[in-house]
Design brief:
It holds the Pfam family Macro. This is O-acetyl-ADP-ribose deacetylase. This protein has about 170 residues and is an alpha/beta fold. It has one domain: Leucine Aminopeptidase, subunit E, domain 1 (3-Layer(aba) Sandwich), CATH 3.40.220. It is about 40% helix and about 20% strand. It has 5 helices and 6 strands, in the order E-E-H-H-E-E-H-E-H-E-H. It has a 6-stranded mixed beta sheet, with helices on both faces. The chain is globular. It starts with a strand and ends with a helix. It binds ligand AR6. The site of ligand AR6 has 25 residues, from strand 2 and helix 1. Ligand AR6 binds next to strand 2 and helix 1.
């Protein structure tokens, strides 16, 4: 049994959820894509929390495949869970790291008691992971890891039609 997995086409920063996952980088200090959008719309409290986490626990940066939580600032959510996806490689299989992002984000969400979690298509933008493959890994991992006792909904929020179609096919 797995928690319900749903798909929405749209902007992840406009979602209402207990936790919203950010496709961050290991610096935790912001960037483009989802990361830029979350910090812009969520406001400065998110970055302040990120800086604190960096100073206290992740001086060398958050490793790829791991996840940490901060406030969601002004977003319509309680928490932002920042995870670091792997950069796509044509020569090295980094699928396990992409799976780990999803598993670790759900583990952190469960610790926080977050029952609805929204994910973007991690690593499919700046990090260039092919959509169909990323969708397959994301959906399979969430199906395996989302305990229905702990989660009411795991939602993938896809910005474009191509991303939506890839996740729909994977689901
Ligand atoms: N809502 C939903 N999906 C979005 C949004 C949005 N507002 N904006 C972009 N996407 P990316 P990555 C889609 O680049 O590949 C940052 O600079 C986008 O079309 O955000 O994991 C970080 O700081 C794509 O399908 O994340 C890192 O340095 C997907 O979200 C780096 O990018 C992920 O694209 C992480 O790269």
């Amino acid at each position: 049994m797995t928690a319900p997995v749903t798909l929405v086409q749209g902007d992840i920063t406009a979602q209402r959820a207990d936790a919203i996952v950010n496709a961050a980088n290991s610096s935790l200090l912001g960037g483009g894509g989802v990361d830029g959008a979350i910090h812009r719309r969520g406001g400065p409290d998110i970055l302040a929390d990120c800086r604190r986490l960096r100073a206290q626990h992740h001086g060398k940066g958050l490793p790829t495949g791991r996840a940490v939580a901060t406030t969601a600032g002004r977003l319509d959510a309680h928490h932002v869970i920042h995870t670091v996806g792997p950069v796509w490689s044509a020569t090295e299989d980094r699928s396990e790291l992409l799976a780990s992002c999803h598993r670790e984000s759900l583990r952190v969400a469960a610790e926080l008691g977050a029952r609805t979690v929204a994910f973007p298509a991690i690593s499919t933008g700046v990090y260039r992971w092919p959509l169909e493959d990323a969708a397959r890994i994301a959906v399979a991992t969430v199906r395996e890891a989302a305990d229905p006792e702990r989660f009411d909904e795991v939602r993938f929020v896809l910005l474009g039609q191509d991303a939506y179609a890839a996740f729909e096919a994977a689901l």
